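> call design_seq(struct)
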């Protein structure tokens, strides 16, 4: 049985973000590397995404 891993483009699409945004994140170690291409399982991406801090930059100042 063939196992499928997500490339950075596929992982970004899976998360609903751009590839550029994905590449700026503190990513988990890839599950596999083929040549220079890194790959992650959906399980790895889901677990990492559930643990990463919220998005959106600085919190708003209270007035």
């Amino acid at each position: 049985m063939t196992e499928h891993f997500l490339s950075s483009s596929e992982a970004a699409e899976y998360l609903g973000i751009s590839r550029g945004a994905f590449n700026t994140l503190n990513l988990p170690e890839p599950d596999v590397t083929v040549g220079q291409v890194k790959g992650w399982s959906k399980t790895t991406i889901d677990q990492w995404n559930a643990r990463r801090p919220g998005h959106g930059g600085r919190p708003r100042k209270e007035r």
